[in-house]
Every structure is written in C-alpha cells, then in structure tokens.
What we know:
Blueprint: H1 2-17, H2 39-52, E1 59-63, H3 74-81, E2 92-93, H4 99-106, H5 116-120, H6 122-128, E3 132-134, E4 142-144, H7 157-160, E5 161-163, E6 169-172, H8 177-194, H9 199-239
Antiparallel strand pairs: 1-2, 3-4, 5-6
The chain binds heme C.
Heme C binds next to helix 5 and helix 6.
Amino acid sequence: MKIMRKYAIVAVLVAGVAGLSVRANADTLLSLPAGYFNKPAVIAGAKLFARHCSACHSVQSLRFNRLASLGMTKAEIQKDVMLESGANYLQGMQPAMTLAQAKGWFGMPPPDLSHMVRNLGAGFIYNYLQSFYWDPSRPSGWNNHLFPKVAMPNVLQPWSGIVTKQGKVIEPGRVTPAAFHKKVADIVAFLRYASDPSVFTRYKLGGYVLGALIAFSLIAYWLKKEYWKDVHSDSAKHKK
Ligand code: HEC
C-alpha cells in the first residue's frame, strides 16, 4: 500500500508539472504553511478534530486532560473536545463508534491517529485530506488522489465542495480555499501534537538549558581568569 501511495504522489507531481492537474485544489502537492504549528493552531485543530474526525478515529495515546497544558480550561475541553459525550477526562480519545460497527460500515476500521504524523508525515496528511474527489463507482462515492480506493469518505465536503477526478467543480466549498487550507493545517497541527505531546514543554526547556549553559560558561571563564591572574603575575616576577 505504501508503494502504491508513493506512485500516486509521483503521478500527482508529474501531472502537476505537465499542467494536467488531477488534484482537487491545486496543480501540485501543497506545502504546509510555514509556522502552522503553534499552540492556538493545535487548540483550533483539537476542536475541529472532535467535530469532524473523532466519530470514527481514536487518538488513544492522548488523554483529554493533557490539552490543559496548552492553556485550555477543563470546561472548554469538555465542551469543545469531549463534546459532552460522557467520555473520561483522564483517558485517551476514543471514537464514537465501535471497531465492529466501523468495519461493517467501511470494510476497514479507521486507524488510530496517535502516531499517524510520525508514520505518514504531516505533509502527506495535509495533502491527503485535500485530495478527495467524487467517484460514484466507490461505495462511499469518494476516492482520493493520494490513496486510491480509500475507505474513508470526504468528511470535509462542506469546506472542499465536490470535485471530479479531473478537477471539475460540481459543488463549490462553503469556505474559501484559503480558509479550507487553514482548517486542514490546524487539524494536522493537532495530529502532530498528538504524536509528540511534550513538544512545547521541550521547546521551553531548551531555552532554559541553553541559558544555564551560557551562565555556567561565563562563571567558568571568570574562574579561569581569577586563577590564572596569580599564575601570570608570579611568572612575571620570576622572570625579573
Ligand atoms: C466516517 C468515518 C471517518 C471519519 C469521520 C474520518 N475518517 Fe479518516 N479514515 C476512515 C477510514 C475507514 C480509514 C481507513 C481507510 C482505508 O484504509 O482505506 C481512514 C483513514 C485515515 C487516515 C490514514 C490514511 C492513510 O494514508 O493511511 C488518516 C490520516 C485519516 N483517516 C485522517 C482523518 C481525519 C484528520 C479526519 C477528520 C478530518 C478523518 N480521518 C475522519 C474513516 C473516517
């Protein structure tokens, strides 16, 4: 499957270069906007994920209470991420449906997304979510340029609209392409955070560690100067 995906990416790139775009939204693969990964984006992404993805996908390795370290209050997490579903604040994110139900409906259980960014890369997921096209031959009515015959439907249809394989717009999205890119980037930011929840603590700690190293280097330098001061003046006396 991985190899197939690689071919699909190359095919999309080649088609883009040749000006024969098959992508729904752009001629070539899209790059994630620089600086897309920050706390407000992760929080926005967590809320979008809860509404659009968590019906099917779990994020087992991320406990809801962990989001408090981003600056969210417990009430906000319960209202906007747990969606007052009765889920446990101290447990990982579970999907609304059971695995058996999901398998019955999609023929394929939706994978847990805890480590998906490490597995597939943030850039791939960003493009995958924007590469769905209308294909009536598929059971869900949807296919994907980057994941041919995918079992997942285009859950972001209200934003992406409905586009054919050749890029013909059947129904425009309800938001501008720029707003669509931003929402998807926020979801990807959330998934990147889920795969590495200590990241912001590490960024902060990195600053302190560098600060401490610089402070100790200065102290060591002053000490060295202090010790060698006497040695220098002694040897100067000796020479005389
Ligand atoms: C209606 C159920 C459903 C919803 C809602 C849903 N997915 Fe999926 N998703 C699936 C299924 C089923 C698969 C497995 C596809 C396959 O293997 O063919 C999948 C697969 C994936 C994959 C793996 C793709 C790959 O290349 O292996 C990612 C990433 C993903 N979904 C992200 C999301 C995100 C982000 C959202 C929310 C915007 C979302 N999904 C919403 C059902 C869903």
